[in-house]
Amino acid sequence: NLLRSMQREPGLDGDDVLVAITTLAFDIAGLELLLPLLTGAKLVVATDAEVLDGRLLLALLERTKATALQATPGAWRILIDAGWSNALPLKALCGGEALPRELAEKILDRAGELWNVYGPTETTIWSSATRVARGTGALRIGPPIANTQFYVLDQRKQPVPIGVTGEIYIGGDGLARGYWNRPELTAEKFIQSPFGEGRIYATGDLGRWHVDGTIELLGRADFQVKIRG
Q1: Hey, which residues does 199 pair with through a beta bridge?
Q2: Is the pLDDT reported for residue 228 higher than 70?
Q3: Which residue, among 68, 66, 65, has the nearest Cα to 6 in the 3D structure?
Q4: Residue 11 pLDDT more than 90?
Q5: Smallest Cα–Cα separation from 64: which of 47, 81, 82?
Q6: Do residues 96 and 229 make contact, with C-beta atoms less than 8 angstroms apart?
Q7: Are 167 and 205 a contacting pair, CB within 8 Å?
Q8: Mean pLDDT for the stretch of residues 149-171
Q9: 191 - beta bridge partners?
Q10: Which of 46, 57, 49, 2 is nearest to 24 (CA)?
């Protein structure tokens, strides 16, 4: 479901060259390795040295004529700090943590397209991919990918009105079965959907709906801290 959705949007085909920079210990590596195999795109796997050195990674992107790169905000900053100035025909995917507007504008100065991708591991890597346009204000997520639903709920698990803060829940085909050998945590986070059959996952992310059907992220409902994605 994820791969077919991402094949359509942001989109990848046999003319693309995707450079993979993610360790296999991070779930988003699944997209980098499997999407090119599904679409016939060329896959270039960066070395550890190239991932850690922005200058080497930039040289790899230029040498391979890369058209797609997925990275966390921290990795995009490494590229910019390494002197990335010339525009590349890149489809840039940014996820793993919140994408600041100022960084988005810098990436847009240098890449052909920028996509803000969002989703917890528990819902299979990415649950939405939103193309970023130039502008001001906080970036948003949504709408969700195929066969996926977003909900913003209050503490009683009821939908909140547009503009009101609540916790983001995700339902659909991407949901995991639960946590390995953690039945209590599975029962806490994967709850029966109040809106029909199946379950929904409590992300712990706070957000609010906008009138256009997108969600603005507003931090965490708990004390979880992300360090460099």
Answers
A1: 192
A2: no
A3: 68
A4: yes
A5: 47
A6: yes
A7: yes
A8: 97
A9: 200
A10: 46
